[in-house]
From TrEMBL:
Gene this chain is encoded by: ACYP1
Catalytic activity annotation: an acyl phosphate + H2O = a carboxylate + phosphate + H(+)
The Acylphosphatase-like domain, residue ranges: 9-99
Gene3D superfamilies per record: 3.30.70.100
The family this protein is said to belong to: Belongs to the acylphosphatase family.
Enzyme Commission numbers on file: 3.6.1.7
Species assigned in the record: Mustela putorius furo
Keyword Oxidoreductase in annotation: no
One MF term in the entry's GO annotations: acylphosphatase activity
Top-level taxon of origin: Eukaryota
Enzyme's top EC category: hydrolase
PANTHER family: ACYLPHOSPHATASE, ACYLPHOSPHATASE-1
InterPro entries assigned: Acylphosphatase (IPR020456), Acylphosphatase-like_dom (IPR001792), Acylphosphatase-like_dom_sf (IPR036046), Acylphosphatase_CS (IPR017968)
Protein name: Acylphosphatase
Top-level taxonomy: Eukaryota, Metazoa, Chordata, Craniata, Vertebrata
Record has GTP-binding as a keyword: no
Length: 99
């Protein structure tokens, strides 16, 4: 397996104006476009959190998207990524919005 194909899992939390601006919907769409699996949800603290899983090269692309782009009306102050680890298989079959 090539280096960019190694499967990884990473948790994320996005801070800023990320609720009420379709951030979850755009995150789900971008994740699916990249072929990633995982989930995204709003928190009671006004942030958006979730988990990404997939090939490392695609996860890196998604991390950059979460840090710098987001949904058109969002304003991202910061993105935290935690618990990154190599995985043998994906834990999810799709990219879900969790209510």
């Amino acid at each position: 397996m090539a280096e960019g194909d190694t499967l990884i899992s990473v948790d994320y939390e996005i801070f800023g104006k990320v609720q009420g601006v379709f951030f979850r919907k755009y995150t789900q769409a971008e994740g699916k476009k990249l072929g990633l699996v995982g989930w995204v949800q709003n928190t009671d603290e006004g942030t958006v959190q979730g988990q990404l899983q997939g090939p490392i090269s695609k996860v890196r692309h998604m991390q950059e998207w979460l840090e710098t782009k987001g949904s058109p009306k969002s304003h991202i102050d910061r993105a935290d990524f935690r618990n990154e680890k190599v995985i043998v298989k994906l834990d999810y079959s799709d990219f879900q919005i969790v209510k």
